[in-house]
Automatic annotation (TrEMBL):
InterPro entries in UniProt: HAD-like_hydrolase_sf, HAD-like_sf, HAD-SF_hydro_IA, HAD_2, HAD_sf, PGP-like_dom2
Provenance organism: Caproicibacter fermentans
Name the UniProt record assigns to this protein: N-acetylmuramic acid 6-phosphate phosphatase
Molecular function terms, GO-annotated: phosphoglycolate phosphatase activity
TM spans (from-to): none
SUPFAM superfamilies recorded: HAD-like (SSF56784)
Enzyme Commission number(s) of this protein: 3.1.3.-
Gene Ontology terms describing biological process: DNA repair
Keywords (A to Z) from UniProt: Hydrolase
UniProt entry tagged with the keyword Hydrolase: yes
Keyword Nucleotidyltransferase: no
Chain segments annotated as coiled-coil in the UniProt record: none
Origin organism lineage: Bacteria, Bacillati, Bacillota, Clostridia, Eubacteriales
GO cellular component, one term: cytosol
Length: 221
């Protein structure tokens, strides 16, 4: 049994896809580019952060000779747009609040590791799960992003635990690659942004169909 649970955020704890789609399309429109579909946004959620905005520009029809110059401006504009109203279209997945409350009651350490910018991650966590997580590790200019395993290992070290005492829970191949490279036990969720069948190549230790299926994996009080 595990003493800590480290979650991905988008597609694992929160359904942020509608918010992400709205902000991406507002950013593309600001720079005179074409909108993307919800399904294209779902694909963007699977990317490491370094690939997100180049792919967004490509999907928006950005000419190749403008992509480099627009990369940083669209990133900044997108973040500013998201920060104005990050929770309007976002909802926790069913069963997640109950899971976090129960883990808290048991004394299980809980944390989030996300490639979402830290200000955004902290804002949505404080809105939806106040007081329920021990640590939130989002992206800053100085942090390492998934799938680099150091991102996960640094968080485990911060929690004061060993790899074997922690379970990482995520929904995309970026999450699978992160946990596997770090040597951390891994659960893939079936309700996220990637078909769980496509994650089988990473041989997750568990594939869970609902949040409550995670509870037996953690120490009871």
């Amino acid at each position: 049994m595990f003493r800590a649970c480290i979650f991905d955020l988008d597609g694992t704890l929160l359904d942020t896809l509608p918010t992400l789609c709205r902000c991406c399309n507002a950013s593309l429109a600001h720079f005179g580019l074409s909108p993307v579909s919800a399904e294209q946004c779902r694909g963007l959620c699977r990317l490491p952060i370094a690939e997100f905005y180049p792919r967004l520009l490509l999907l928006g029809g950005c000419p190749s000779d403008r992509a480099a110059e627009l990369l940083e401006p669209i990133r900044r504009y997108d973040l500013q747009t998201y920060l104005k109203d990050p929770c309007a279209l976002t909802r926790p997945f069913p069963g997640i609040p109950k899971l976090l409350h129960e883990l808290r009651r048991r004394g299980t350490a809980t944390a989030v590791l996300t490639n979402k910018p830290a200000p955004l991650a902290e804002q949505v966590i404080s809105s939806f799960f106040p007081g329920l997580l021990n640590s939130v590790a989002g992206q800053t200019p100085d942090t390492i992003s998934k799938p680099d395993p150091r991102s996960l290992l640094h968080l485990i070290q911060f929690l004061g635990l060993s790899r074997e005492e922690c379970l990482f829970v995520g929904d995309t191949d970026v999450d699978m690659r992160t946990a596997r490279a770090a040597g951390v036990p891994l659960a893939a969720v079936a309700w996220g942004y990637q078909d769980p069948r496509s994650l089988s190549a990473y041989e997750p230790d568990w594939i869970v169909r609902s949040p409550e299926e995670l509870l037996p994996l953690f120490i009871k009080d």
